[in-house]
Amino acid sequence: MGRHPTALPGALSLALAAITQPAPAVTLFCLQWGAIQVPAPLFAGDLNERLPSSYRATVLSLITVARSTDVGLVGLIVGGLAATALPAAFALMGVLVLGGALLFRINERHLDSRPE
Fold it and tell me: Which residues contact 38 (CB under 8 A, 6 or more apart)?
């Protein structure tokens, strides 16, 4: 998982897809919610450190708009799926998060080649 635990919420979503008992489901959901919140300040700190101050506010605003649009559109799809098959919705969320964590991971090579 590296420095940013982005894959953990995806793995917990996949686990939620397989759970049928209420008590473990509530526990996993709480763990997932916490795991989702952990990387947010880490990413914010990294962005603030790496973006030049002359256009930091614009870039952060664009990221917020893109994230909100993505959450809204994917939320409609997952919500529609959850209305008919809740485990499938959790499985889809898990696959999307794990896929994104693998596809868009940042490594030290990316950080060393950034412009100053």
Answer: 5, 8
- What lies within 8 Å, CB to CB, of 9 at 6+ separation is 32, 35, 36, 97
The pairs formed by 12-20 with CB atoms below 8 angstroms and a separation of 24 or more are 12/94, 13/90, 13/91, 13/93, 13/94, 13/97, 14/90, 14/91, 14/94, 14/95, 14/98, 15/94, 16/87, 16/90, 16/94, 17/87, 17/88, 17/90, 17/91, 17/94, 18/87
pTM for this predicted structure: 0.75
Beta carbons of 97 and 7 less than 8 angstroms apart:
yes
pLDDT digit string (tens) for 73-87?
999 999 999 999 999
Q: What is the pLDDT of residues 49-78, one digit of tens each?
A: 888 888 888 998 998 899 899 889 999 999
- 6 φ/ψ angles, rounded to the nearest 5 degrees: -80, -25
